[in-house]
C-alpha cells in the first residue's frame, strides 16, 4: 500500500485532541493509515536565517515541520493567504488587501516547502495537499521532478468566476491547480464554480465528468463534503468532562432554554448578524425574556489581520448593548466568551442547548453544525438553525435554514426552533443523524483518496509556471 503524505499549513500531533476543523479531521485520517505530515512549524525566524526542519514521531505518523522567515511569513500567511485568498474566496472583495508584494512571498514559501519536502518523498507516495495556503505546492513539486499522485482539497468555498477573477494573478493560481491529479471541493456549488471558471477563463476541454484538460495536464475535480468522526464525538459526550459540562449547564439553566454559537472569531461566521437576529427575537417576542439565553463562544483567530480586530470590537459592543438594554438582575440574555472551549467539553455544551445557531455568511462546510447534531439526545434533541450559505446546507436539509443577512427572518426561525415540539425535533434529528453518519470523516477521506489512487502517475515539469 502506498504511504500517505499529508501537507497542510499547520500540523497537529494526531495523538492529542486538537482544536480546529482541519486538524481534527486530518488527525483522524493519519492515525488510521500512518504516514508523513508536513507543514509550517508555527515558528518565525529572523530574515536571512536558515529555516530549519523539525522531525517528530507520533505513533504511526512522522511529523515534519519547517520554520518561516519573518517577511516570508508576513507575505505568505498574513498577506496573501489571509489578506487576499481568505476574504475573496468568502466573497468579500471589500476586505481584500491586494498588496503587490504578497504573491511573491506566497510563491517563495510554496517553493521552500516543495524543496524541503521533495527529498523526503518515496516514489509511490500518495500526496494530499490541504487548503488555500498551498495551491501552488504541486506545481513547485513537479518542477523538482516529482511524479507522484498529488491531490488537493480546498476547505473553504470557491467563489464564482467573476469574483475569483478580481484577484490579480488569478489565472496563475488556477493554472497551478492543474499540477494536481485530483482537486476536491466541499460543495457542489464550489465544484460548479470551478467548472465554470476553467471552461470560460482557462479554455479547458472537458474530457469526462468534472474532468478537464488544459496546460498539457488533466485534472479530475469533485465534491467531497468533509464530515466528523461521529463515534469519537459521541464518545466525548459520554466521557467524564462531557457529562460534567452537560450536567452543570442543565443545572445552571434549568429554567431557561439555551441557544449556543461556537465559532472562530471570523468575519465569515456572521456573528454580528447573529447577535442582531437575537436582539430582534427579544424585541419581537417578549416571552423570550428571561426564558432564553445565548451562549456565544468565539475563539481568538488571526489577530494580526486588521479585519479581525474590527469584528471583535463590533461584537463586544453588540453584546454589551443587548445585555444593557434587555438584561435583568437575574438574567443576562447573552453570555459572550472570547476564547476556545476545551474540546472534551464541547459535546456537553451542545447537548444542553435547545438551539444551535450556525449562521455564517459563507463557510466551506462548518463542522460545528455536524458536531451539534452528533451530541444530541435522540429522545429530546435540539434544533439546528443553519445558514443556507454554509457548505453544510447542501447536506443538512432538515435543519431550519436561514439567510443570515435577513435579520428578521433569522429571528423568526430562532423563535420557531425554540417552540418546536419534541416529535418534530426527533424526526428532523433522525434524518440529520443518518446524513452525518453516512458522510462522516472516514467517508470523506476514503472517497477522496480512492479517486486519487485511481489517477495515473503524473508527468513532471511545469512549463506553465
Ligand atoms: P473553520 O473555519 O475553523 O474550518 P469549522 O468547520 O466550524 O470552521 O471548524 C471548527 C472546528 O473548531 C470545529 O471542530 C469546532 O468544534 C472547533 N471550534 C470552533 N470554535 C471553537 C471554540 N470557540 N472553541 C472550541 N472549539 C472551537 C475550515 C472551514 C470550514 C470547514 C473546516 C473543515 O472554514 O468551512 O468546515 O475547515 O474543512
TrEMBL record:
InterPro entries from the UniProt entry: Glyco_trans_20, Trehalose_OtsA
- The signal peptide, as residue positions, is none
An annotated Gene Ontology molecular function: alpha,alpha-trehalose-phosphate synthase (UDP-forming) activity
Give the UniProt keywords, A-Z: Glycosyltransferase, Transferase
Q: Which reaction does it catalyse?
A: D-glucose 6-phosphate + UDP-alpha-D-glucose = alpha,alpha-trehalose 6-phosphate + UDP + H(+)
Give the top-level enzyme category.
transferase
Q: In which pathway does this enzyme or protein participate? A: Glycan biosynthesis; trehalose biosynthesis
The answer, when asked if Glycosyltransferase is one of the entry's keywords, is yes
Entry EC number(s): 2.4.1.15
Biological function: Probably involved in the osmoprotection via the biosynthesis of trehalose. Catalyzes the transfer of glucose from UDP-alpha-D-glucose (UDP-Glc) to D-glucose 6-phosphate (Glc-6-P) to form trehalose-6-phosphate. Acts with retention of the anomeric configuration of the UDP-sugar donor.
Q: Which NCBIfam families does the record match to this protein? A: trehalose_OtsA (TIGR02400)
Q: How does it assemble?
A: Homotetramer.
Record-stated family: Belongs to the glycosyltransferase 20 family.
Question: What is the name of this protein?
Answer: Trehalose-6-phosphate synthase
Organism taxonomic ancestry: Bacteria, Pseudomonadati, Pseudomonadota, Betaproteobacteria, Burkholderiales
